Amino acid sequence: MPVVKADAYGHGAVLIARELSRYGVKAFCVASVSEGVELRRNGIRGLILILGYTHPEQFSLLRRYRLTQTVLDSAYAKELQVFGKKIAVHVAIDSGMHRLGERSDHFEDIYAIFRCPNLVIQGAFTHFGNDDTDSPSDKAFTLAQAQAFQAVLAQLEERGYHCPKRHLLASYGLWNYPEFAADYVRVGIALYGMLSTGADTDRCPIPLRPVLSLKTRVAMVKELRAGESAGYGLDFVADTERRIAVLTIGYADGLPRALSNGVGRVLIRGCEARIVGRVCMDQTLVDVTEIPGVLSGDTAVLIGSSGGRELTACSMADQINTISNEILSRLGKRLERILIS
Ligand SMILES: *Cc1c(COP(=O)(O)O)cnc(C)c1O
């Protein structure tokens, strides 16, 4: 059950969902009703599960677009019930992460959700809070989460309620706890060919290869004399004569501003160039003094390979203390998504 929320982690939700549909995928996860509507309006069929909150004013969209809503807790089940028409749902069980879901130790409240006549219960799921480490205490916690979820389902069976579909795992769970695969796995970041960090991606026995490259163009090349500066705040000062390429990408496209002033790197003509000065909204400056022949129109690679070198979303994330998920999901809507098969 691929997770295509946040525009498929920046890859383009419609593009990715269409491609996956061609491979026979028949169930998707999104975060919000508007993401579900976008997929339906673009012809995506099958189950579309909304993992997050939908305001009651938008409940009619759930029916109009045949979207499946997550039941967040027993109070939310009542709101769905009061809507007065049948709504397809999966019930979220909070087994210890304490984000969305009815608490697994509130069995009577969960039982009440299953008795709501307007809820067409197609499944139930839980989500792990720390399935990404192998410390014994984290392992014990995750196993306790799985057991709490399974105990709820067993109790429901005893009372005559069979839950059609069950799911527990996201990407890290698929790696670390494949025994809990159940009916679906909600695969997000791994689907896009990496885990949240480069170290995890390297350690993971599932062979992962990044799906996405991020490329832009050199708009122009500028010669700076020694002592001249460039960019906002005049942050970059040329110590000697320097050649600066102006790239057609900025923080509005999701290139983090934290990569300013020498932190970030790009590949041009197979060589690495340092980001200099401050990343702007629509442009970024890089020092190409050491790269011969850089011209207006050249390709600059921010994520991807060139001349045997590779920059990854994970390495970019590492440089600014975040995770690949954040880098990818913030890629801007101005970037053109092109499918290369
Ligand atoms: C985002 C999300 C996922 C996907 O997580 P990844 O770690 O990217 O695989 C799965 N389940 C829920 C409930 C989520 O919110």
Protein topology:
Layout: H1 5-9, H2 13-22, E1 27-30, H3 33-41, E2 47-50, H4 59-64, E3 68-71, H5 74-82, E4 87-94, E5 102-103, H6 107-114, E6 119-125, H7 136-158, E7 165-169, H8 171-176, E8 184-185, H9 198-203, E9 214-224, E10 229-230, E11 236-237, E12 242-247, E13 265-268, E14 271-276, E15 284-287, E16 299-306, E17 309-311, H10 313-319, H11 324-329
Parallel strand pairs: 1-2, 2-3, 3-4, 4-5, 4-6, 6-7, 7-8
Antiparallel strand pairs: 9-12, 9-16, 10-11, 12-15, 13-14, 13-16, 14-15, 16-17
The chain binds pyridoxal-5'-phosphate.
The site of pyridoxal-5'-phosphate has 13 residues, from helix 8.
What are the defining features of this structure?
17 strands; 341 residues; binds pyridoxal-5'-phosphate; 24% strand; 11 helices; alpha/beta
Summarize this entry quickly.
The protein is an alpha/beta fold and 341 residues long. It has 11 helices and 17 strands.
User: Number of DSSP strands?
Assistant: 17
N-to-C CA distance = 22 Å
Global morphology: elongated
**What oligomeric state is this?**
single chain
Task: Enumerate how many helices there are, as a single number.
Answer: 11
- Average pLDDT works out at 97
What proportion of the residues form beta strands (DSSP E)? 15-25%
Instruction: Pick out the low-confidence regions.
Output: none
What is the element string, with H for helices and E for strands? HHEHEHEHEEHEHEHEHEEEEEEEEEHH
Q: Give the fraction of residues assigned to helices.
A: 25-40%
Characterize the largest beta sheet: strand count, sense, and whether it forms a barrel: 8 strands, parallel
Structural class of the secondary elements? Answer: alpha/beta
Radius of gyration: 24 Å
**What molecules are bound to this protein?**
pyridoxal-5'-phosphate
